[in-house]
Amino acid sequence: MNTIKTKDIQIAYIGGGSQGWAWGLMSDLANEEAISGKVKLYDLNYQAAYQNELIGNRLLERSDVAGKWEYEAVKTIDESLTGADFVIISILPGSFDDMESDVHLPEKYGVYQSVGDTVGPGGLVRALRSVPMFVDIANQIREFAPNAWVINYTNPMSLCTRALYATFPEIKAIGCCHEVFGTQKLLASMVQELLGIEGVKRQEIKVNVLGINHFIWINQASYKGLDLMPLYEKFVDKYAGNGFEGSERGHWMNNHFVSAERVKFDLFNRFGVIAAAGDRHLAEFMPNTWYLKSPETVREWKFGLTPVAWRKQNKQALVEKSDRLADGTEPFEQKMTGEEGIDIMKALLGLGEFMTNVNVPNQVQIGGIPNDVVVETNAVISFDSVRPVLAGKLPKPVQNMVIRHVSNQEIVLQAALQKDKNLAFQAFVQDPLLSTMKPEDAQALFHEMLAKTGQL
Amino acid sequence: MNTIKTKDIQIAYIGGGSQGWAWGLMSDLANEEAISGKVKLYDLNYQAAYQNELIGNRLLERSDVAGKWEYEAVKTIDESLTGADFVIISILPGSFDDMESDVHLPEKYGVYQSVGDTVGPGGLVRALRSVPMFVDIANQIREFAPNAWVINYTNPMSLCTRALYATFPEIKAIGCCHEVFGTQKLLASMVQELLGIEGVKRQEIKVNVLGINHFIWINQASYKGLDLMPLYEKFVDKYAGNGFEGSERGHWMNNHFVSAERVKFDLFNRFGVIAAAGDRHLAEFMPNTWYLKSPETVREWKFGLTPVAWRKQNKQALVEKSDRLADGTEPFEQKMTGEEGIDIMKALLGLGEFMTNVNVPNQVQIGGIPNDVVVETNAVISFDSVRPVLAGKLPKPVQNMVIRHVSNQEIVLQAALQKDKNLAFQAFVQDPLLSTMKPEDAQALFHEMLAKTGQL
Amino acid sequence: MNTIKTKDIQIAYIGGGSQGWAWGLMSDLANEEAISGKVKLYDLNYQAAYQNELIGNRLLERSDVAGKWEYEAVKTIDESLTGADFVIISILPGSFDDMESDVHLPEKYGVYQSVGDTVGPGGLVRALRSVPMFVDIANQIREFAPNAWVINYTNPMSLCTRALYATFPEIKAIGCCHEVFGTQKLLASMVQELLGIEGVKRQEIKVNVLGINHFIWINQASYKGLDLMPLYEKFVDKYAGNGFEGSERGHWMNNHFVSAERVKFDLFNRFGVIAAAGDRHLAEFMPNTWYLKSPETVREWKFGLTPVAWRKQNKQALVEKSDRLADGTEPFEQKMTGEEGIDIMKALLGLGEFMTNVNVPNQVQIGGIPNDVVVETNAVISFDSVRPVLAGKLPKPVQNMVIRHVSNQEIVLQAALQKDKNLAFQAFVQDPLLSTMKPEDAQALFHEMLAKTGQL
Amino acid sequence: MNTIKTKDIQIAYIGGGSQGWAWGLMSDLANEEAISGKVKLYDLNYQAAYQNELIGNRLLERSDVAGKWEYEAVKTIDESLTGADFVIISILPGSFDDMESDVHLPEKYGVYQSVGDTVGPGGLVRALRSVPMFVDIANQIREFAPNAWVINYTNPMSLCTRALYATFPEIKAIGCCHEVFGTQKLLASMVQELLGIEGVKRQEIKVNVLGINHFIWINQASYKGLDLMPLYEKFVDKYAGNGFEGSERGHWMNNHFVSAERVKFDLFNRFGVIAAAGDRHLAEFMPNTWYLKSPETVREWKFGLTPVAWRKQNKQALVEKSDRLADGTEPFEQKMTGEEGIDIMKALLGLGEFMTNVNVPNQVQIGGIPNDVVVETNAVISFDSVRPVLAGKLPKPVQNMVIRHVSNQEIVLQAALQKDKNLAFQAFVQDPLLSTMKPEDAQALFHEMLAKTGQL
User: Fold this and answer.
1) Is this structure's pTM higher than 0.80?
2) Which of A360, B218, D233, D380 stands the most exposed, by the fewest C-beta atoms within 10 Å?
């Protein structure tokens, strides 16, 4: 007798027309033979979802595919949710034009953002746009799939997940992000580099994670019985000056997503704990004068400002590729994403139990941070259960910076829920990236950004 | 390069003259080839420790022994602690004569206790005796082994562990108890009984544990992908009336340590959560009128009152056996205890990571319970780290009962630290087992018990 | 220019047909010339309210009446609430027959209650009956008088007030009770008795109040610059044995409402803080074996069991008196009640600022007690504002007893809101007055009481 | 019989050589006939204390002096503390040269400070200097006057008072500050200005105060029955543009201590609550770009930068005046300070009970702010008792700013206690006044300031 449901699993994919994340999920599902079922793709752009239906279903026929999944594009969100065991949310809140405004409009005022989707002027305006969407999604989930497990990949992660819980407190939702994985990989590289141990997997690097998404910290790290904290100190000593460029993902000068880790190393030198996100994200949480003062400063710190123009170009290329994948002129290449979505679903079904970092409301898994705000720590995932572990406290100076952001995010949440522009500005003006602006300039920028993206 | 310390591990064993727990540890260590080192046995009764040195070292020569450990009896506690990686505390606080007073003196007043070492008049007086001992041990650990991990097996578990932390807040101590394992085994038996699945291991029964030692509760239980809570409801329906006597440990009428689980089933019927300790322990936390009103009531509920006379006899037999083991006339029989001490030590060394239930101060791993009191929940154990998982909240009526005991225990702690007899009595008189006594009778009993055991 | 609204004040009186409290209010209003307006009397028994309209309006004509108020009986609660500045709630939840069941039915099982309206079996069943009424009242206030200040006099005070806030969290409500005043008077008598100082007013006795209604404690008391705590110790030494019978209200043997304070003195001897309610109330919070074991025990402790038969008789006499007052055959006698309702209303209007004890949800005015439960402490009352003062913490043993009751009350609240009989029983069976009963007897009693009063 | 101690009261004055505060106290004591006793003046500068002894004792002979007090300069702090009923602490932490460095050195980096004694670079460095002094004073009080009530007037108020409690948790200390009084006076002026009511006293303006010293907020204000919040909105509308210059204290252009309240009005327009300190203080809590960007910005906002040179000149004048007062060539002019020290002492002795704003550790009198940090709210002062009232919560955006400062202050406290320069810098660099500096410049400034004042 098999006690675990492994067949006929139903996944609702909100944002199912995406080219990046949806194809990644297809790859990961195709590689996993233990479970099978159906993915219902819902997207505001039905055509894109339908194209993914075609792409996904082609995999069913392939002999090299272990996991058998049917894909179906649906026209309404409730069709996707009804009967769902899992809900994946991976949407773009607004358009790339909106994102262009979020990221680049502040440059007029001398404010540069490396990503612009989390905090800073871009992140906050994006949040104001996202919260109502997530309120709506949460209401739909409450009605059509109240017992489903919800995995959110959308940024701004903290506020999107917070909006789900604020709307439907009993929701079983987690936010997942791979930034910590990147740091684990960096630590694995370090072990190889300094100790000559080959083949260390990122999962073997045990870390205690605490913070908020994209501004996460590690205060305990080990590889087997080896304490990595003193080793990291040596590593930083060696590379803080010129950066560590051994990453497999390419060189920071040629790639908008990599860096030489100099921001991460500088933060370690200052605070004594490991910042566990990419430099592009970390920099945005700090005052403007630290790492993002100007494009020159950014170059000195050896990371990049990701232009939205690049995203638009890339999107265009993906749309064309999508056509080729859908009509079969290009074969779908299975490429494991390294994301953990499938592992998490398996664990929730009762197939194994494991610990990883997730974003959920604080119930004092991090001490000294207010309750209910969404924080990122490790959690144990097992059958129908996600239980955060007690992660302890951040060093006071780091806690202070984290609290500044979570307080601001709580204001943004309320402002978005109440459609209170004035309240939203009170958060906006307190963002560290705007710390060098006069309040009247911040106000002008804020209204220009809202006008451009048609908000509030 | 091996990053994990697996050799030359040093264990300080406080109470190292014990026959039960010490021999168990010897067996478990002998079975585990991954680690080796030295155990320093310290006991108030040096002779008993020395005898265990002889017994333990005989194992070194045996070919059927995988784990190589040297044993050494030492005359002072600091000798055992100096250099220790781990400290095991397993002592009898006081003598069996003291315990006879704890358990049986209250019978004069119509108060029966099935164990008498946790709460109730016996547990509280035992705690008053134990706290100063654990204050002393904590001070020694702070001085001689501040970085060692400490595993306490001594009852009253909550207050002994609490005293360690109250004295030395940075101590790395956990309290370990096998009562939850018993409940996992019961659930495994249930799975076999009701579903016909054979060979289920207790470790495969995943449970969310929350409560205080010996008064622990499970509100989520699964076997692989199977939710065991509705199954348990059926199981209780079937066996609540006559009890479940399928336990491997023998029949309750012939064994002071087993029961027919009727108390456990009754508590489930009342509160909807699984009480996760033996009936003998559970009964002592409830008002006197429920399960311990009289020996007849106890018989109806099909559990036993463990007489201290039995413990004394058993002790005598063990002392004799000790002589035979020491001089080699009886061979030491390796018998795995089923305890997790060795697994915990391995995990703390970096050999694997696992989750089990431990007793540590509450940092809101259980909601609605005051901070700092020692609670029992699951925790993730990995390299140099024990991190409780967030266990959530108890149902309000159970929370009320638990809080009553933890509040009482906090008073006992203060009373023991301040040697305040009057304060101790304020806790004593509020114990549910004394709920039918007039306060003046409770006072008489209290003073008689203190006089008998020479306390305060 | 007069900045304070002193005319055209409108009071909604819920329970406006009462003979006791309503007439008291009339007296107090008649004595106070600073404010005037209209009282709208609402009662399930319209006729009684109408009779009070007649009685109240007769005062308008009298030359010896300083405060000019018009009275109007209304037929619906919303008529009384619309336009109200203040709402007074003073109702009998259920009938005296219900109360007879609450108080006397448990006697069959050997459980005696001196009042039976707060805790104990009677109090809890009364609470189950009251909560839905207060939910309804709170909903009406939200709709018709959301900005009015609400003064509740109804018992069970804690749970009635709690139900108001649970239903309408923004309500501006306080619960008022005179038990602390009685203790202040006792302390004034003590000052006279031991120090020979005459004419001390109860308002001059400054006390720090903390606890829950009818189970309140004073840990700091002074008269001018004199610390009364050591004086009280001497006073208790002198009178604990035989009781203090100097009270102005009559002798405990002849009056159902007075006592010789022996319970109060005993509690001081045990816990070192002053219990600040009448002995009849205090006794009901303690385990059955302490003060209420039997009518004989009660006599020894020199307080009384108030029979509901007396209340019924008294009611009959009041009804007859009401007829005489209404038709003018008996003149209304102005008699100040000593209650503070009028002073509170004046302060809320901006006429003076003062400090007194009130019942409101805990926002940590008492430490160590859960938030949101209704507690009694001092508060500063001024224009449109009631601000509790930080009262500190109770001694641990007292805190333990208080928490036991508040936890129970929270269960009763949920049980009443959810109409969950089983949950209600979980609170019932944990009440200290039932601590000597077997759970099956408690269950039988519970169901009998519910059946008798037609509840759940 | 007089129950209140009114004679032979002993006050220890730490900083008793001061010219400003000490003479103020002499005036106030001289005006109050209800109490009398002795003031023991202790100062690092004994000569200054001795001169004040001479000045104070001259008052004893004057017929126009109601309050009879003897003054005595003592050479050690324990002499002043032994036997003290009250301790007043009013010291200058360091010299005016130190203060010159605190205030003016940052100007080199474009950072202007209007006072420089609370937060900002000057406030933080002053705090690093003050904390060890207050640790020392607290230790002396514990030893020599553990039951005395301590009134601190020294800035930085929050951290000095925090250091007292961190060192001696049972200390009975409050911090007193007159900034709220100024706001009450402003509101009184407003009542006169807008409503034509004359002679309103500041004590008649009832306010709910919440925040931290010099960054305090009022969310409820009334005069008798009049809600002042809507009136203040009108007032701000009228005067926000050009400022309100009706203050009795002189014009902001001619006086370093006054302002046109434009900062206060701007903060109200932004946050909807009344900032209750002088503009010079308020401005220092906000980001550098708001009100202190440059001397021109300050002029636009119509407040002043108080130069330390002025303080030095003023000091010189006072020293000369001190000589004349001591030798009698100039008569001492009694001038009531408007401070409440004497009223507070009287209330603590049992002479009256009143409510005012004080600085004490947070025990949740303000919600949403961490415990133990020193906050400013109203408190009820009566015999041997100071009890804060529950002040509620700040609006979220203001709370965020307050938390940023209290978190920073906690870091400074730890840094000062542990003499950890690196930790101190983590707070320094997060101060809003430095929000436009690059971290390396902040570091240079920090070290220069420490070097100049010889610290850490």
Assistant:
1) yes
2) D233
